[in-house]
What does this fold into?
Amino acid sequence: DGFIDRASGDIWLSSTNSLTYLNQQTYFGTGTLQDPYYGDFDYIFGHLIPAKTIVHLGGGIFWTKGWNRTNANAYQIPAGVTVQGESEEFTTIRRATNYTGYVQQNVTLLHSDDSNITIRNLTLDCNAFDFYSRNWSNSIGGVALNGNGETLEHVTDINGLGLQFAPEGFQLVVGYYGRSGNKVIGCTVSNFMGTYGDGVAPTGDCLVEGNNVYFPVQPAGRPYLPLFGINVVASSGGSMVVGNHVFGGGHKREYRTRKHS
It folds into this structure.
């Protein structure tokens, strides 16, 4: 029964014709398991996803324009929402290109300033090839959750961008100054195309466990390449960083930590 599905706080999305309907501000379906929403992914998230729901993404590619601060129509994930795919292998959210307001801008695929959001079991494809080939000085990252109690679990981030010394290409971001209770567990960052970025970038107190970051290798003879696998900032109450692996990059330490008053 569709009403029972929705009343339980679960919403289903299908990737059917996701690219065709992107930017069309339209949708189909009722959001149930039997009749999932499909259509304009950004429109659906901006208008049909209430707080404190579980959003089930089916297999395939969900296309998004992403989020940037200059575009008033960009959506944010509401508080308390869980976004979960079938797995990192089968569910992908991919950035689309060539949309007015999103060209030569800093873009994040998923963004929220609210708290208690969970994203799990999916891949975020920043698809930054267009920016990289044109040498545009902008950053493209996977996710930025800026509240308390945020969780990233089994999320793969690929094809991000940040060029030295343009905006830093933060890929998996949780928290902000004074925030706590955040977690990044079992995630992967790979195929970063730029020269200035961070794999896992918590601000505030956070558990960072079991993540893998694969960055470009520092060229021979180059003294410094600002690629930081795990960058913990402003952790006043204490963060735990355990069981992570960083490959490549240009910083001589596996982790970088910064404290700000």
Observations:
- DSSP finds four helices and 21 strands in the chain.
- Helices lie at 2-7, 18-21, 41-47, 129-134.
- The radius of gyration is 18 Å.
- Confidence is low (pLDDT under 50) at residues 1-5.
